[in-house]
Design brief:
binds 5'-deoxyadenosine, four-stranded parallel sheet, binds iron/sulfur cluster, 17 strands, 14 helices
């Protein structure tokens, strides 16, 4: 979602006469888009901004902007921490950035633009896109779930969704420009359509939106993220099965395999419900991929809780898992709890999870050996001259020989080799 916001702001500035600078030291404006989900990213962000002190000292007119969730959380504190920051702009005010930057250029004063975080964004879609093949399309923003570890509901506000007409119009425009793949983005895509419109409902739910987008000529693949286990439904799995362009990949964050921890996280499901959903998904999409997010070291997580997470990971057999060490994120509720799992234990649990997942990923990928898969060619490879890299519908990376002329096309590749993070093969037509 942050990538889409960066692209949006870049496009907006280009529409207002700016151009992309070839490097930071040539820029008149430097914008940092920030993520507040984990403490580590936040610390890195402030150190990256601080790296600009010498440049700012040399180039007085340089404007430094902090946008995104850290801006929303820190507000004027960000400038107190690092006075070289000129503008602090929350996610709700990003559409105003061209005007704010112009004001700062004129008056040389700090501007803190943090408005109502629950506000709906204006329907502006600048032309600029960072790629030519795959496009990110936001379907809404915010989250109502308040998982106790998570800062998103505070930084991004309550759920609000774009009108299906606007989304379809945007995707049609992208199809006309030659984009082949669409990634629909929302904090919780399965609750699309809830809580908006005059009667509190949009005309379609998420499965209905997928159906509409599936009709758009030129688009070959539709992906989406993120789904929430509490709202993932048979209707969604059925839509994924029935709609030819919707790719067979579900990202379903587990977070923990322990019911006790899931409850403390306020996730709204237990291990049983999660496993049932997975079973149902596998029934509709036997060859579909499943990926997940897992947090280790949530307050109070015992060895027994952790073992339960390992158990679920084995039982499900995820294609890939993004694993994180818990960090308290005030004002999220769990930040009031004692962060009582030591860093040493968090590290060890993370390593163990990652090791297990690497084994499972290889096993899952080996199932592809000897099979012919549909690959969208995305870029040139890094090793031999004519290798290219693409992705399967299940979002697995594939490397094979073929040459740059293939970029943008859909080809069949027979898989000959499988590693934990990439498949290799040869084109068969
Ligand atoms: N600590 C560690 N990981 C977190 N995530 C969200 N909040 C935290 C936190 N406080 C992880 C979750 C989420 C992913 C985007 O980041 O796993 O799904
Ligand atoms: Fe955060 Fe939970 Fe909302 Fe995901 S569903 S954004 S983890 S509060």
């Amino acid at each position: 979602m942050n990538s889409r916001d960066s692209e949006f702001v870049t496009g907006l500035l280009i529409d207002n006469g700016y151009t992309l600078a070839p490097s930071i030291d040539k820029a008149d404006v430097v914008i940092f888009n920030s993520c507040a989900v984990r403490k580590h990213a936040e610390d890195k962000l402030f150190s990256h901004i601080a790296d600009l002190k010498p440049l700012k000292a040399k180039k007085k007119g340089l404007i430094i902007v902090l946008m995104g969730c850290v801006a929303q959380n820190y507000k004027d504190e960000a400038v107190k921490r690092l006075p070289i920051i000129d503008i602090v702009c929350g996610p709700g005010d990003e559409a105003k950035l061209p005007r704010i930057i112009a004001d700062v250029a004129r008056h040389r004063e700090h501007i803190i633009a943090i408005e109502d975080v629950d506000k709906k964004r204006p329907e502006i879609t600048p032309e600029y896109r960072s790629g030519e093949l795959k496009a990110l399309v936001s379907i809404g923003e915010g989250c109502n779930n308040f998982c106790t570890y998570c800062i998103v509901p505070y930084a991004r506000g309550r759920e609000r969704y774009r009108d299906p007409k606007d989304i379809v119009r945007e995707v049609r425009g992208l199809a006309r420009r030659g984009f082949k793949e669409i990634l629909l983005l929302g904090q919780n895509v399965n609750s699309y359509g809830r809580g908006t419109g005059s009667d509190g409902q949009l005309a379609v739910n998420f499965a209905g939106l997928l159906e509409e987008i599936n009709e758009i000529d030129g688009i070959k693949r539709i992906r989406f993220m993120t789904s929430h286990p509490k709202d993932a439904s048979e209707e969604l799995f059925k839509a994924m099965c029935d709609l030819d362009k919707v790719c067979e990949h579900l990202h379903l964050p587990l977070q923990s395999g322990s019911d006790r921890i899931l409850k403390a996280m306020n996730r709204g499901y237990d291990r049983n419900k999660y496993m049932k959903d997975i079973e149902l998904y596998k029934r509709y999409l036997p060859l579909g991929a499943i990926t997940t997010d897992v947090i280790v070291g949530f307050p109070g997580e015992t060895e027994k809780d952790f073992k339960e997470t390992l158990r679920v990971m084995k039982d499900v057999g995820f294609d890939n898992a993004f694993t994180f060490k818990y960090s308290p994120r005030p004002p999220a509720a769990s930040s009031e709890l004692e962060d009582d799992v030591t860093m040493e234990v968090k590290d060890r649990r993370l390593q163990e999870l990652m090791k297990l997942q690497a084994r499972i990923s290889i096993m899952k990928n080996e199932r592809f050996k000897g099979k012919i898969v549909d690959v969208l060619v995305e870029s040139i490879g890094t090793k031999a001259d004519d290798t290219v890299i693409g992705r399967t519908r299940t979002n697995k990376m594939v490397v094979f020989g073929g040459g740059a002329k293939l970029i943008g096309s859909l080809v069949n590749v027979e898989i000959e080799d499988a590693k934990s993070n990439i498949l290799a093969g040869r084109m068969v037509g």
